[in-house]
């Protein structure tokens, strides 16, 4: 790595050379409506799970796009699938399908290491 | 005449299908749970077996349910099923009568006319022969209608008919050939040997004058035997498996066996019992959104062939409109849910965070109010309920006012039963800890799961429409009739899902002018917002919703009333018609009454109360 004269904390680095886009591609291919998310945060504001524990659909989107699968996996488990987010979404994104697709795809590409 | 080689295709075919059926039904029954097996043993020698026989006669042979749907369609199915059944039975009696023996081999009865060299001489023989001819014509009329149905299904009250696959096509073609070939073979034999009866004899004589029929006799009998064999051979890979399997289904169903939450022999029996008649297609609202390949009939076909995809399995509103229409009485929703459980079983969540105790401690109370997630998005319902509770002086605990887990039903609808159990357990503990006697729920989705899956001993679960009716009956609510026409939309989970049709109607009848509709109660529509469908896109949901609203607008209502926050939210988005929950309507009426009383005193013009949006 080229030295630009400032320090890089290893844990906070996302190495895009190691980026595994299969999960992201599959989710976007199966549920294209997720592409139009404008990160308004309406979903998070209304979320029933977010009342009880920190759960953020926008963050989930970010994790998915960065390929941070391990964190995504522990995050996605929190969703109770109640569907409130879909009713408030100004873009009509099928968020419940996104959740289910991520759950399924994680299993497919990164089998859970217990 | 002595047995000839042409009987062999038929005999081999019959042996093949008999062995196949014994083996496959044996496998299915042996895979049933021990409780289900004991159900069979306990009921097999009871009246339930006789009732099953009656049901088989009424449904599998006479097709009463299809008759109710459409008379021509019913006649087509009845002539083929009942006609063929009688042909077999009367044919055997005829053969037994002729050979004066009770053990006539099947081929001698099926090819009876080939084995007799002269027309019947006794009276009984003549009657039997004539009835055989008439029965064959009866079946042929059904075959003709079946040909015709493929050309024009609208005549049969069906807008759509199912797409067939190769096994079905072979079986269908051979089925269509069996009876015309039998008729021709018998007529030609009658023309040569003069052994026919009232219809086959004249036909045979006519054919004899036109054609050198002795050349055709053997080929026709061969073709008849061959078409039967082909039908038997194609049966295991075709929809005609429903003929024998439906009989097994009716027995098992009457013994009390139902589809469970896992794939079992019984769910396989149900899947094989689907005759793919396609009657479920027309009632499916997915058609309004131009989704035409996810209906129950196609999903059952894919489940049977073990090639179901998530895209099809989850693209269904689970509204249950198709279920009352199914002439076989299949548990279409449960079969789909069972398959969804199977498809998603590997990624159920455990919701560990629920144990951290972020939720409020349950206070001691008589009445719990659980609004439901969706109701929190419709504050008008919440406010109405709160006001009504205050008015009726009910002390209650608003359980999900803040920080409460979902009821679990949305997870169950997509097959995540294991995950839902965690939520159910969590909520159940909170409810039981309060010592309440009554649980009032505003959302039908929650209502169904509280009612069926929560196991709440001593607690009466009520949808708010039931509860409000109870308050009204106890004279705890003022009554005031609003001068407005109202149509009531049955929410799927409350109506077909929980059988609550009357309570909301009684309430609305008291407080407004309720207009009856054509498609209500069991035949009511889904609003299109169902949580059970995770694949449908928003624009498709809107198409379904608009289609329903257009029909409702035809009744020229002032408002559309419903009893579900999700239905309200879905309909309200279109802005075609003001939509209000029952609780809102009642609170509105009470408010109006108070204002009109105040108005009378002051002798001023009564101000019009607007609904809040």
Short key terms for the protein model shown above:
heterodimer; A: mainly alpha; 7 helices; 0% strand; B: 613 residues; mainly alpha; 4-stranded parallel beta sheet; 5% strand
Q: How would you concisely characterize the structure shown here?
A:
The complex is a heterodimer of chains A (114) and B (613). With 114 residues, chain A is mainly α. Helices cover 50% and strands 0% of the residues of chain A.
Can you walk me through this structure?
The complex is a heterodimer of chains A (114) and B (613). Helices cover 50% and strands 0% of the residues of chain A. By secondary structure, chain A is mostly helical. The mean pLDDT of chain A is 87. Chain B is mainly alpha-helical. Chain B contains 27 helices and eight strands. In chain B, strands 2-1-3-4 form a four-stranded parallel sheet. A four-stranded parallel sheet of chain B has the order 6-5-7-8, sandwiched between helices. In chain B, α3 packs antiparallel against α12. Chain B is elongated, with a radius of gyration of 31 Å. The interface between A and B is medium-sized, with 28 and 39 residues.
Q: Structural class of the helix and strand makeup of chain A?
A: mainly alpha
Shape of chain B: elongated
Which stretches of chain A of 5+ consecutive residues score pLDDT under 50? none
Strand arrangement within the widest β-sheet of chain B reads 2-1-3-4
- Using CB atoms under 8 Å apart, which protein chain pair has the greatest interface? A-B, 28 and 39 residues
How many DSSP E strands of chain B? 8
In terms of quaternary structure, what is this?
heterodimer
How large a portion of the residues of chain A is in β-strands, by DSSP E?
under 5%
How many helix segments of chain B?
27
Helical residue percent of chain A?
Answer: 40-55%
Number of domains of chain A: 1
User: What value does the Rg of chain B take, in angstroms?
Assistant: 31 Å
Helical content of chain B stands at 55-70%
